[in-house]
Recover the amino acids of this structure.
């Protein structure tokens, strides 16, 4: 008997973890950190409902921390198996997992030094040493390569256009004494017609499907992202303010730089200093240039002209904490792109502490802000924000550009699902807050006539 257990990304967009058990062996698909509300974050500290040592393999759809950030803890707690991921994902993990560990160690150290922690001492969930140990277990694979996990299970990774190396994973299960079946884990589905990455690959059939629903109840803002960026940058530059963009270091940061380069070349915005202030963002930008297997036609065209698609005219990848602090002494208008994307941690918090009180400056959110995050609270009109234990007044302009998301919206998800030649037996709606997940479930049932369900945390289903 095969079973599937949902250990994350159920009625929330974080903590993706699914355990597929076949023939007595367990595969863990994604290994993400919970983020957002305190009760979700506390799950990171609770023992995993299955023993890490009982898991034979881990497979990762892509490198974002809400899909991979628990891996060092999993290894620390006893997981010893291989971790399969695409080549792009494997390379990103080399920068993202140590960076995640470093941020947690820094945050714990800062909390202890400033005394604003209830825990004495505050401890990181894992250390850089734990991250290095986890990386030793990563095994890179190519798109569409057949990975033989056991005599019962094979898996293949297909490009899905969300970030570098992102994929959906299709498992073929062939147990004794039952008909073979397939199951697809969508990971995060990307957009169609976006620059840099190829469009999502077609998923043509599966007996079971897990599909994300981050934007399951919404369509992206039809406003052109470059038009909105132009408007925001020009208005803020006229005031002499800073444009602070909390952005995921992987994916969103590179797309922003790509658009800013185009806007400069088109003469639509002034040439301003553009700083990527995130060690991970800087390293990821270099990786994006290297992994040409993911590049779409437009990205290749610019490269063929011997130009760097991912750099503006006055561009810097900020080095070290000293370089980061120096940005806040720089006079005049400038653009600072810094992680984390939901303003939950990282260097962007120091820039927010400096510029949220400044009416001339603008904070621009360019991706989904999960419930409970600082980014969502600022979007919702919070008048003061608690940063490093102190309340800071919000006087800066707060803007959002929804069309810059790297997630498919409801229509794009339905377009991707439209590639299936036959309905799955069951479609599980995951990786979305409850209203998004139920909206996508209803849409799938109504428009496609499929059987779709929204699973619960820790729920186990038989396949």
């Amino acid at each position: 008997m095969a079973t599937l257990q949902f250990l994350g990304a159920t009625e929330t967009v974080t903590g993706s973890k699914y355990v597929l058990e076949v023939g007595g062996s367990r595969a863990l698909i994604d290994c993400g950190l919970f983020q957002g509300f305190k009760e979700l974050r506390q799950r990171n500290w609770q023992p995993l409902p299955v023993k890490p040592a009982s898991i034979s393999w881990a497979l990762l759809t892509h490198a974002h921390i809400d899909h991979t950030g628990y891996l060092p803890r999993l290894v620390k707690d006893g997981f010893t198996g291989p971790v399969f991921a695409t080549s792009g994902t494997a390379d990103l993990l080399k920068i993202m997992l140590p960076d995640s560990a470093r941020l947690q160690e820094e945050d714990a150290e800062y909390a202890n030094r400033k005394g604003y922690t209830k825990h004495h001492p505050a401890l990181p969930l894992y250390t850089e040493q734990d991250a290095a140990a986890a990386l030793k277990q990563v095994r890179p694979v190519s798109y569409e390569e057949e990975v033989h996990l056991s005599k019962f299970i094979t898996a293949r990774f297909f490009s899905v256009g969300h970030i570098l190396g992102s994929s959906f994973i299709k498992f073929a299960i062939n147990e004794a004494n039952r008909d073979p079946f397939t199951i697809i884990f969508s990971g995060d589905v990307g957009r169609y017609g976006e620059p840099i990455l190829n469009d999502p690959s077609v998923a043509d059939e599966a007996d079971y499907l897990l599909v994300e629903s981050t934007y399951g109840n919404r369509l992206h803002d039809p406003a052109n992202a470059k038009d909105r960026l132009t408007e925001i940058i020009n208005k803020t530059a006229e005031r002499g303010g800073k444009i602070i963009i909390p952005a995921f270091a992987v994916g969103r940061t590179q797309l922003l730089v790509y658009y800013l380069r185009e806007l400069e070349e088109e003469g639509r915005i002034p040439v301003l200093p553009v700083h990527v202030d995130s060690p991970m963002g800087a390293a990821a930008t270099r990786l994006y240039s290297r992994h040409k297997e993911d590049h779409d036609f437009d990205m290749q065209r610019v490269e063929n002209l011997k130009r760097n698609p991912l750099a503006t005219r006055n561009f810097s990848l900020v080095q070290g904490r000293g370089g980061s602090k120096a940005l806040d002494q720089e006079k005049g208008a400038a653009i600072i792109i810094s992680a984390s994307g939901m303003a939950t941690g990282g260097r962007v918090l120091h820039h927010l502490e400096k510029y949220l009180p400044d009416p001339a400056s603008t904070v621009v959110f360019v991706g989904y802000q999960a419930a409970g995050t600082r980014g969502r609270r600022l979007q919702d009109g919070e008048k003061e924000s608690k940063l490093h234990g102190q309340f800071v007044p919000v006087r800066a302009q707060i803007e959002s550009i929804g069309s810059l998301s790297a997630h498919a919206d409801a229509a794009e998800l339905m377009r991707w699902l439209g590639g299936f030649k036959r309905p799955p037996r069951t479609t599980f709606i995951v990786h979305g807050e409850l209203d998004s997940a139920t909206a996508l479930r209803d849409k799938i049932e109504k428009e496609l006539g499929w059987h779709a369900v929204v699973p619960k945390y820790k729920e186990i289903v038989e396949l």
User: Anything to note?
Assistant: The chain has 14 helices and 22 strands. The first helix runs from residue 38 to 41. The mean pLDDT is 94.
